[in-house]
Amino acid sequence: MTANLTKQTHFDAIIIGGGACGLMCAVQAGFLGKRTLVLEKNDKVGAKILISGGGRCNYTNLYASAQQFISANPHFCKSTLSQWTVEDTISFFETYGITGKEKTLGQLFPESDNARDVVKIFTSLCADLGQEIWCDAAVENVEQTDSGFTVSLERHGKTQNLFAPKVVIASGGLPIPKMGATDFGLRIARKFNLKIDYTAPALVPLTITGKDQPWYEQLSGNSIFCRVWNDRISFEENILFTHWGLSGPAILQISSYWRPGEFIYIDLLPNQNIAELIQAEREANGKKMLLAYLANLFTRKFAEALSDKLPVDKNLASLSKPDIENINSLIHEFKVKPAGDKGYDKAEVMRGGVSTDELSSKTLEVKNMPGLYYGGECVDVTGWLGGYNFQWAWASGFVIAQGI
Question: What is the pTM of this model?
Fold first, then answer.
């Protein structure tokens, strides 16, 4: 059934996407006395909030600044992040009953460890502030009119055309399509001839194929604290060996800076010097086998896996200078050439998106299309792992609300 007539709504803006950015935008608009309608494709809002951090929701990072974000214009996010700071996020959630607890590297989680508490704040506030939420609302198109925008959607088997003076696109990126992620935001951007910076999975596991895969496969489940780097950046966190390659926080972080065909490098023993450690040990116990020594530093399984790369059957006293150099090189500069990544199904976020050249850094309004705003993941601003992308989502939702 189709309703072809456009319904003149009483909303100041229609927000497309009921994720972190869209929900924050609706609430902040409500605080300013504005009415919004949130259109969410799924049967409930906050789907990615609910699964983030293993269902615990790492909702911000104490150290968030522009430095932890990737964009063709690294300065673009500064204005938004300064208008809504980490302190603002912490204060907002504390006001509505969520106290944060810090885990590693500044990551802040609710004390309850329950992401549902985060979503409940927004749904309750939307209800209190008269902000309407329509779930099961699949937006199909946005058209510009003389005085605003027409939004076409399908809901409960019926097509509707709604009018609003302003539209906010906070529909997210491409990761996790099984949770309803689509290219809607990018599709509308292309329709309006907005520039899109190259998109790719980010914060995503990396794959190893070919003759090297069995070596990684045998280590599946082993986790090691490492420094992982390339010529752009370096991270010190755990890596996880899997049957298809590498994962773990350090790998997810570097993946955002990795490009197909490039190498990444791993220091398996950061902040220590393997050559010096071996020298000290050989003076105390030269008869100890290299295999046993490496098993003490790592795990037995990992030490045995190095048997085809290092002389693990030698004792420490009999290691030659070239042996030591080989060990030092492998431990401190383990070279990996990933075949690819696990794609949008396993990616935390999307890199790239609507070009920041198209948007006002102060308001996130499309420069050449007044009344249209882009926020959250579909903009070319991508944060590190650890709550940074939520901070961008909250901040961009707040900034947009000031303009609508």
Answer: 0.94
